[in-house]
TrEMBL record:
Record organism: Salana multivorans
SUPFAM superfamilies recorded: TPR-like
Protein's recorded name: Uncharacterized protein DUF5107
Pfam families: DUF5107 (PF17128)
Ranges of residues in domain DUF5107: 71-381
Top-rank taxon: Bacteria
Matches recorded under InterPro entries: DUF5107, TPR-like_helical_dom_sf
Length: 995
């Protein structure tokens, strides 16, 4: 039996989160062997993220993780505090006999601490400070623990709060449920962090629900951080022979890299230093590097610290969870500088990410309207067994074959197993066996004298003979997998089908710099009636609020589909027509289209819900219930359907049945927002005790659900709560809530009340009010129809249109608002942006920015954008410098503007001033922007006649040893496979990629 080595305690001067003891009642249950959970704040040294920008960020060509870095309507955060403060964070603690966890609801519901009580080891990287760097999709991002990434990477809401509740089950397990509506499409996600009483397994239970009327794309990666050093090894199944980069743009053998990868020639390094090509060891990876395994058929992977003698395993069924990835900043000064941006004393880490329904980044899959995907993942700590060679949720085994003629199998269990049977056999011949009382945290080891061969197996059974884990040698084909290639230009693509599919790929994978439109346009040029292309374009038009155009595409598709067969295999065209008709107010035609779409099992649930809503909205309650009844057997779970059914039952006086529907649905989906609001209005409370939502955005979503069901008065009550709710970093919902109330009131014939709501909207604080989505689009269109001179409605609608590439219309609306007397700096800035990007009126663009700066002279963001515009318009550098000198103090509040200013100082013979700034000011680099401060440092030193030197620590970055893959070619064209770009590309001209 091996001896467990416990890690050394932290030094006395090192900050460390102090975990509280369990409260008395929980402590008593814990002592009796139970799993417990409780809420208690943690005080953590925190470097606060800056205030989100007041300006919408239309970062269409921002490349982020190989996908689109668009953030609208999420407000963008661009700064982090230089100094830390002690701050209490809401924390939920889970504990049993073996592990201790901490979940931070205010940071996306991440698991921040995973501690193995049996070995004293933090099996997840414990970051003892909250120290964000500007590497998140919306700006700030922190390392450590587990970040749960959806619907893209990194989680858009990673720095936003989630709703939580604690559930105790009859089996003794405790679950912390975390819930949010994603900031982009308003889909609903719930993840439950679960501990069982007698197990070291950390179980994650996930429900992803598309609560929208449109088909959506998503990915899910659980991003696990592990503290690393020269002794840390990431382990993957033994059938892994190759790993791939983002989008499979590059490939190398694994674990011995056999070719240059991320600019590092590992084979050459190994020729000088044997073993230097082993990229499963952190110490050998010298640059920021991602690799995702290719084609494994196994269910596990993890990491192991050989020096400490401990690690962890991730396990999930490979059929839904093929993704297994490692990321590191790199074991070199460049990477260490990034580590220092993210922690004070806790050192480097790697990310060992687990992808569900995805095996690469970007690699998006689909959710149909109303669809819910459920799955589980689990992690558990392992003691000193070595890297696992096979694992299940019950046990892991590591098989040492380093000594010829000897096999040593070390097992680790996740629950006590009295009388467990260890066996090494060759075929049916038992070579060695032992019976032990196995417990978590203590390895069980067995040795046999045998040469490894295909028939040699190592197994662990429980006392009843049930197999817990088994290992056998792996034999796989060594054929090299495929590598992705850039699509040909549309005119060179051979077939209409390939044109259509290429466009789907670009849209589905949210390509940041290539648009699907040229491919779909070419497809229709060759075949004007091509059905799938019309549906793709119709879907795109529908999402942009171009309902007539969407309907036209659907009808062309239907004309071909039904020319010889009125009952086509796929009824998507009927469903799309129904959506467009409903938005156009043509309810009778929409209901007919939805009814026909319901003939197709794929679209029946979504179409049935839309039809039932339409019937309910006009009081045809029994008809609506009949529709719901007809689709219950088609798809198992859609909380939208449960909510609508409860509303209808109440209208029909069947309150008891309604209460049962709500209670039953909440037992499955305890934090569904609409169900909780209905539960608070007469039905039993959620079985977990969760109260009604308080987040303004979620309340707004529920109000829309009620309005669509014909519950206008209830929707108005909720909208009043939205208006009263505090504004958060996620943005302000107040103006659009007023406009939505106005639309409802107009529908009720209460014109004076509707006008009052519009007046209230115009009087609202517009800070970070960024409308998006079709419902907000429609109420703003209605507001302008009611009062064409409403400049605030024009401003807000313009923002929504600009985000959906209806930019000429947005520009017109913004100029119309300015002509009407609105002088808001966001409006003036937006108009300047549109004048440059869209209408290409350079003089107007400059004038609008001058007006915006005059309206908000102390706004550093505006000053930065104005300087960026000056550069693009060819203003002399002396003129730019003269404009910035008088506001130097304001300039120095932003990293990006400071770098521009330093460059201008150096270019105009003031390198001493530039060097003073560079050596005294603290910088916070951003992912994709590496090298900006370093370039300014090198230029200033060169101007002063000083030799090349490594930058000081305050610049936040170090000189890279190797050249990374190209992001932008010398021609100025962004590489098709670029994973990040050094610019946010706010000022761009021409159509871009996107959905």
């Amino acid at each position: 039996m091996s001896t467990v080595e416990h890690p050394a305690p932290p030094s006395a001067d090192r900050a460390r989160i102090v975990l509280p003891d369990a409260p008395a009642d929980a402590a008593a249950r814990l002592a009796a062997g139970a799993a417990v959970a409780w809420s208690e704040p943690l005080t953590i040294r925190t470097y606060e993220a800056g205030t989100p920008s007041a300006y919408p960020m239309y970062l269409d060509q921002r490349v982020y993780q190989g996908s689109s870095g668009r953030v609208y309507p999420l407000p963008f955060v661009e700064s982090v505090a230089d100094d830390g403060v002690e701050r209490p964070w809401q924390a939920i603690h889970l504990e049993n006999a073996y592990v201790r966890l901490v979940v931070l609801p205010e940071l996306g519901g991440r698991i921040h601490i995973g501690y193995d009580k049996t070995t004293g080891y933090d099996f997840f990287y414990r970051n003892n400070v909250i120290k964000p760097a500007l590497v998140g999709l919306g700006g700030p991002w922190i390392s450590g623990g587990i970040e749960l990434n959806w619907p893209q990477h990194h989680r858009p809401a990673t720095y936003l709060p989630v709703e939580t509740t604690i559930e105790s089950a009859e089996d003794g397990s405790v679950t912390v449920w975390c819930h949010d509506h994603d900031p982009f499409d308003r889909m609903s996600a719930q993840h439950g962090v679960r501990l069982h009483p007698d197990s070291s397994v950390v179980e994650l239970v996930v429900r992803l629900h598309n609560r929208t009327s449109e088909r959506q794309t998503f990915l899910w990666w659980a991003n696990v951080a592990a503290a690393v050093n020269d002794d840390y090894q990431s382990f993957f199944p033994e059938d892994v022979r190759y790993v791939a980069d983002h989008a499979r743009r590059a490939l190398t053998a694994f674990p011995n890299a056999d070719r240059p990868y991320y600019g590092v020639d590992y084979a050459a390094l190994a020729a000088a230093t044997p073993g230097a090509d082993r990229i499963d060891w952190y110490r050998n990876v010298l640059v920021p590097t991602s690799y995702m395994i290719v084609d494994s058929q196994q269910d596990f992977f993890g990491g192991y610290d050989h020096g400490v003698g401990a690690g962890f395993v991730h396990w999930a069924e490979r059929r839904i969870s093929p993704g297994k990835k490692q990321w590191t900043w790199g074991n070199a000064p460049f990477g260490h500088a990034w580590d220092a941006q993210l922690t004070d004393d806790d050192g480097p880490y790697v990310e060992l990410m687990a992808g569900v329904y995805t095996d690469n980044q970007p690699d998006f899959t689909w959710l149909l309207p109303g669809e819910t995907k459920t799955f589980t993942q689990c992690w558990y700590p392992i003691p000193a067994i070595g890297p696992a060679h096979q694992a299940t949720p019950d046990a892991a085994v590591s098989v040492d074959r380093s000594v010829p003629g000897t096999v040593v199998a070390a097992f680790a269990v996740t629950a006590p197993r009295d009388g467990a049977r260890l066996t090494i056999r060759r075929g049916d011949e038992v070579l060695a066996s032992a019976t032990v009382d196995a417990v978590p945290g203590v390895p069980a080891t067995l040795r046999a004298d045998v040469e490894v061969g295909p028939a040699v197996h190592a197994e662990l059974h429980d006392a009843d003979g049930r197999l817990l884990v088994a290992w056998a040698p792996t034999e796989v084909e060594d054929d090299e997998p495929w590598v992705a290639s850039e699509p040909l230009p549309p005119e060179e693509v051979d077939s209409v089908e390939e044109l259509y599919l290429t466009g789907v790929h670009l849209a589905q994978y949210r390509h940041p710099t290539r648009s699907p439109l040229p491919y779909w346009t070419e497809a229709l040029r060759r075949d004007p009636g091509e059905v799938r292309t019309h549906l793709a374009l119709g879907d795109r038009d529908h999402r942009a609020g171009r309902y007539e155009d969407a309907l036209a595409h659907a009808r062309v598709a239907l004309e071909r589909l039904t020319r010889r067969n009125w009952n086509p295999q796929d009824a998507e065209a009927f469903y799309l027509a129904g959506l467009a008709l409903a938005r156009l107010g043509r309810a009778t035609e929409a209901e007919a289209a939805f009814g026909k779409a319901g003939w197709d099992g794929t679209w029946a649930p979504a179409a049935g819900l839309e039809l039932a809503r339409s019937l309910a909205a006009t009081g045809r309650n029994r008809a609506a219930l009949r529709v719901l009844d007809s689709i219950d057997g088609v798809v198992a779970h859609d909380t939208r359907r449960d909510a609508l059914r409860a509303i209808l039952l109440r209208r029909l006086g069947r309150d008891g049945e309604a209460a049962w529907v709500i209670a039953d649905a909440l037992a499955v989906d305890p934090l569904d927002a609409t169900l909780r609001v209905l539960a608070a209005d007469g039905a039993p409370a959620s079985p977990t005790g969760a109260g009604t939502p308080t987040d303004a955005g979620i309340l707004y979503d529920v109000a829309l659900d009620l309005w669509k069901a014909g519950e206008a008065e209830a929707a108005l009550d909720l909208l009043a709560e939205v208006v009263a709710a505090p504004v958060t970093p996620a943005g302000s919902w107040r103006p659009v809530a007023h406009y939505t109330a106005a639309a409802i009131l107009d529908g009720l014939g209460r014109a004076e009340d509707a006008a009052a709501e519009r007046r209230a909207a115009r009087a609202s604080d517009l800070t970070r009010a960024f409308p998006s989505g079709l419902d907000q689009h429609d109420v703003l269109v209605a507001a302008l129809a009611a009062e064409p001179d409403d400049g605030v409605a024009a401003l807000l609608l313009g923002m929504a249109l600009y985000a959906t590439h209806r930019r000429e219309e947005a520009a017109v609306l913004w100029e119309r608002a300015i002509a009407g007397g609105v002088e808001h700096p966001v409006l003036l800035r937006n108009a300047g942006l549109a004048a440059y990007n869209v209408t290409r009126e350079d003089d107007l663009a400059w004038r609008r920015y001058e007006q915006a700066v005059a309206a908000a002279p102390d706004d550093a963001r505006l000053r930065y954008e104005q300087d960026q515009l000056a550069s693009r318009l060819g203003h002399a550098t002396a003129e730019r410098l003269a404009r910035l000198d008088p506001v130097r103090g304001l300039v120095l509040t932003r990293d990006d503007l400071t770098i521009e200013y330093v460059g201008l100082l150096t270019a105009h013979g003031r390198a001493e001033e530039a060097m003073e700034i560079l050596t005294t000011r603290r910088f916070h680099p951003w992912e994709g922007g590496e090298g900006r401060t370093l370039a300014a440092w090198d230029a200033a030193r060169e101007a002063l006649g000083l030799p090349l030197a490594d930058p000081p620590a305050n610049l936040g970055e170090a000189r890279p040893r190797f050249v990374p893959p190209v992001a932008r070619h010398a021609s100025g064209v962004t590489d098709y496979f670029a994973t990040s770009l050094p610019e946010l590309l706010l000022f761009t001209r021409g159509e871009t990629g996107g959905r």
